[in-house]
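Worked example (supplementary).
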Amino acid sequence: MSLLSLEDVRTDIGQYAVLHCISLEVPEGGVFVLLGRNGAGKTTTLRSIMGLWRPKAGAIRFQGEVISGLHTAEIARKGIAYVPENMGIFGGLTVEENLVLATEKGKFDPDRLARIYGLFPALEQFWTKQAWSLSGGQKQMLAVARAIVEPRALILIDEPTKGLAPSIVAAMAEAFRDIARTTTILLVEQNFHFAKSLGRDMAVIEDGRVVHSGTMAGFAADAELQNRLLGLAT
Amino acid sequence: MAKQDTTGARAVKIAVFLIAALLLFAPFLFQDVRALEVAARICIFIVLVASYDLLIGYTGIVSFAHTMFFGFGSYGAAIALKQMGPGWDAVALGALAGAAVSLVVAVAIGLVSLRVKAIFFAMITLAAASVALVLASQLSHLTGGEDGITYRAPDLFKPATKLLTDADGKVVEWFGVKLNGKIAAYYFVFTSALILFAVMFRLTVSPLGTVLVAIRENEARAEAIGYRVVAYRTFVFCASALVASLAGSVYAVWLKYTGPDTALSFAIMIDILLMVVIGGMGTMWGAVVGAVLMVMAQYYLRDLMGAASEALAGVPLLPDLLNPDRWLFWLGIIFILLVYFFPKGIVGTIMQKGART
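After joint prediction of all chains, the assembly is encoded as:
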């Protein structure tokens, strides 16, 4: 049984159908990468899973349970964390307050906190600083740290490398590898080299439909397929 | 690791501490009836503005029904004191009744309309406040209509009441001030305001306060990490309404008169809004500074302008410009200048001074 499955999910935004009967199986463990051109429906897929956009048809199952009718907050409490494209941090709160918000009882598990400090040392350094004053990379670190401050079964991450310096992207890749040892990651990414270095399984979305799915190794080896589906130069 | 104060934040806290000290010793420092009236009004408005800031500043909810809840509390105490006589049982029952009505109305408005867009919610609260104002006017057998109700406060607050007497049975004086019922009434207002303010302050520095700020910044993000935004917004709306209602009851006991102008009018709502904006949204200290400045301006700007006008009698144009009758015009100018130079309110702007980025 897969960890997450989308069965013929259709999501409309206003009068426009963005996802057309999308079906996807995300297995447990590792990084599952969702690829596609701009406007293909990748972000809408993640937002539909989180309940931020309500699917008009189809079903979304998480650990065998249908979650597509649930409220966003309930979906989050089922063990799904979401790191949106714009990082989704709260600028008016400190680093500590941003992380406390995501804890269940308002207290940190010391082991998890130590792991966060290990992955993202900058967060410890700027612990009492307001989040708006962090750099882009630090904000992204905070957004990812918030997703792992409690045990989660699945983390949805939307374009985490967008606008980041190469050194930060490398650090982020290391962090994702570490996180993926214990938590499944569903990653939406435009940077194919970054995605290729992390992904175990993948799918390509085009015009709101899954047009290809398989292993990342297989897709990475097929230059013609990459060119056809993503427009990558061979 | 605790959050470090900026130099601006320290300055604000010192200023608020001084204001609190002045209010605490107001009956002994400013020995005239008007000054005590101003001090009591400041105490009440600090609570009222702080409770409104919980809504607009901390949670991002725009409501025009805040005076309605203040009015429920005022009329609750006023009607009970009128009907039952000047006893503490009447005060308690009236305050409880006002609070209960406020809670029921707040829950109803909150659950029905906090899901809708902010502008629609604001319109719904405006409509509810208008209905309350009309009802207060129409139900004249209970509320006294446009004339309002006058009543007596508990005996402890009568000016003739001697709180302490000497060997001759005369009322004791401290620093030239007679310890009579008026002093007791002031400290009833001061203590009630202090307790209500402390409760709200505790709420804002609790984990709940952090959630409220998160909701204000971005509802969808707050929901995506597991918070039911409607439930939190409804809770804050109810808590804010409850505090406003209790402040209304205390003010009714102090004034011994309740009418549409003192408890329900839109002029009070505008005053509250101005105080929040002048003080600074999203900070409890802002409520203190905003209320003090605005109430002081309302009471003393005319006097100040009159004195300035007389002092400048020989100068052309200025005495006419500073004519006390133009005080609202100058209040408007001062407000515009404050908004221009302190875009985040006085406290919000000062607290940022010395902030390290």
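Two points are worth noting when inspecting this output. The first helix of chain B runs from residue 7 to 24. The mean pLDDT of chain B is 91.
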